[in-house]
Amino acid sequence: MTTSLLDTKLYAPRRPKGLVARPHLTDRVQRGIQSKLTLVSAPAGFGKSTLLSEWLGGAQEGGSVTAWLSLDSGDSQPVAFWMHVIAALQTVAPTVGAKSLTLLEAPDRSIEAVLAPLLNELNALPHDLVLVLDDYHAIESPEIQVGVAYLLEHLPAQVHLVIATRADPALPLARLRARGDLVEVRAVDLRFTPDEAGAFLNGVMTLGLTAEDVAVLEGRTEGWIAAIQLAGLSMQGRDDVAGFIARFAGDDRYIVDYLVEEVLQRQPEQVRTFLLETSILSRLSGSLCDAVTGQGGGRAMLEALERQNLLLVPLDDRREWYRYHHLFADVLEAHLRDERPDDLPALHQRAADWFDRTGERGEAIKHAIAGKNFERAADLIELAMPASGRGRQEATLRSWLDALPDELIRARPVLSNGYAGSILVRGQTDGVEARLQDAEHWLEVMATGAAGEAGERPAAMVVADEDAFRKLPGALAIHRAGLARLRGDVAGTIAHARRALDLVAADDDLGQGAASALLGLAYWTNGDLEAASSLYAGALGRIEKAGFRSDAIGVSLALADMRIAQGRLHDAMRTYERGLEIAADQEGGRLRGAADMHVGISEILRQRDDLEGAARHLQQATDLGEANGLPQNPYRSRVAAAGIRQAEGDPEAALQLLAEADRLYATDYSPEVRPVGAMRARVWISNGRLSEARSWALERGLSADDELDYVREFEHLVLATLILAEGARDRSNDRIGEAIGLVERLRVAAEDGGRTGSVIEILVVEALARRARGDVPGAVGSLERAVALAEPEGYVRVFADEGPNMAALLRLAAQGRNASAYLRRLLAATLTPAERPPADQALIEPLSERELDVLRLLESDLAGPDIARELTVSLATVRTHTSNIYAKLGVNNRRAAVRRAAELGLLSRTKDGRPGA
Predict the structure, then answer these.
(1) How far apart are CA 288 and CA 301, in angstroms?
(2) What is the C-alpha to C-alpha distance for residues 427 and 437, in angstroms, rounded to an integer?
(3) Cα gap 470→474, rounded to integer Å
(4) Which residues make beta-bridge pairs with 66?
(5) Is the pLDDT higher at 762 or at 157?
(6) Residues 48, 164: contact at Cβ < 8 Å?
(7) Taking the CA of residue 719 as centre, how many other CA atoms within 13 Å lie in the half-sphere pointing to its CB?
(8) pLDDT(774) > 70
């Protein structure tokens, strides 16, 4: 939509000339600002918009600002509706809505996520704001109704909503009424009183009617303002006014047709023709009317109609855009259909041509479809698809495509492929195969020369977007790879993605990035993390270069998951941090996906036993809201929170969070390698609830003899833990041996796949299983291998979560040798609060002087690099000292170290160990 046309929707109607003052109604609307919603609900022609335009001046004088949005049927698509709502709000509060507009582009958006940042921004406004939604009856979408209900439920105190509508909206009006949050103005309130009818007919229209004539007319119209106005127009120039009133039956709703016909018949033929032909337009301008009627003078005609008060509503202060009164427009269009049905296609075609020339492709498509010029509509839709994809207007695109005859779409390969893409982007597969085959058919016909010479275009094939047609082979291969991935066909995904890489132009960053990412997904599913991560890293660079930053954030999330599986926590952390950089927009806000980056950082910090840091980042993700999260964020954030609760010794809270995560999980393109059910089973096992874990294993059909694959690797590791626990309970060496056999097979597979993260987890379970069977040297050997792999990346919870059994094994590993600081740190992390030494007990191994220096600076606000500069040492040296400090104090993060040091009086000591002054 161009700016000029959009402006007309945001324009509050001017107060009509000769307005009949109605202070009792404007006062009621003004008092309604103290509630959440003012509902002005009445049939057409009762003066709803006129009342609001009269009230607006008083509302603005009262210290509030007013945003206006005139709605029409085109706004019944959620994306269009909320875009226009935000545009209206930005006319009086320019700083609101930027984040929500970004979120509207997301294919899997939730309306709560879209509205959350908008509500926060409205809440921060320093003044009152009124949002008026006029003609709300045009909104039929249940999704929009849900969103407006959510908006009302969370509306800030200084924001008020006014809805004008012909029918009550599907909103919780009873609840709002019971809470005192609803002020209502209805038809019975809007009806003209006899005095108001007289003021209008005699004061505004200067008809000179007697009080008796006014009373009769008011009684027969029951105060219906449109009928009174139309009757007044009909009486102008009549000699027998009394006879007209006597014959008038205003209580009949069909009187409107009669009155409009009277008005139409009394107009010169040129005016009547103009009114009928332009009734197909939802908005009118001189240039547009000239194009539709094929005549000149459209601007002058509109200005003349306005002067005659002929039910024309101005939409801007420049007298450029107008619309007909809705009631008038409805009847005009009905007359046009009845009198000149054969002219409708040509009128709509002229409108479509004008809108296309002025860049209003959406309006052009609407008129082409209304005029049943489906060939023209198909051309326009094909050309509009790239912009539709960028704007995430899939619902609008689908509504257009659904209006076209199927055989027309099948003849257009670009349109068929676009149709397939609009289905895939929602994670759906039904109907995709047929659309892809339709597009591929034409390429095959051209390649084989079945319709002529090889390479010659068949006459029956239609292409509107030549650039898209040139890219079609690569686009089809990408969609084929996506379809195969959603179907779980790994081999097919690989084949189609590789073909796409060959077909897509080398300088097409988005196409190359998409194909690389799909190929990476396939390798990830197969467990080849090295190949998968390499492809994904390349895809990230290409997609970011193409400017698709939100997509780059999603790629970052998957890449970090791969790094974690590879045991590369440092690299995963850098990926998350880079994702946050990408997510930061120029205004300092956040793009969708920022919350996911914080959740990922939280999980790494939890693994490193920095529970406070993990909780802090999780809170940051929560503060950003689901609006700043990808579709899986609600699920992932609860999994992260469950891990923190488990580490804190609250398994019931962890299980509750995991149950919530399970309900929120939504399938996407990434493989589900750590199912929530397996996580819950692991918590059950660690808390002795083996029967529940066994029920899970049976439900999943798991066996120690299963053929192994990466997607079920974690499930099989949990199964091995379960078998080990059951063997220990039953004192069955056979069962323990069964567990060892399974973990050995899992370890070999993980090692072969370069999945060091998995290898560490598996070695931990293997060490515990060997100790349970009495193989202490073997247990210590497995543990030492795990420690050696884990130490460079700072793993802690993978050991500590195993509890007392792991603590005993760690003590065995530390016997008879000078235990490393890392091993001491792991031991400290396995201790329960009751097992930790009291605060006043001296340290078993005192801190060195240099460690005391570092400790004192840890108490300050200095970051690690600043501490290194202060002590004139390298950052690596500071990190070594910090690790030693944590191990000696039995803590796992900076804040806990400072607190523990304060308890021991270490912070007040001088370098020679004496208490300070």
Answers:
(1) 12
(2) 19
(3) 9
(4) 130
(5) 762
(6) yes
(7) 25
(8) yes
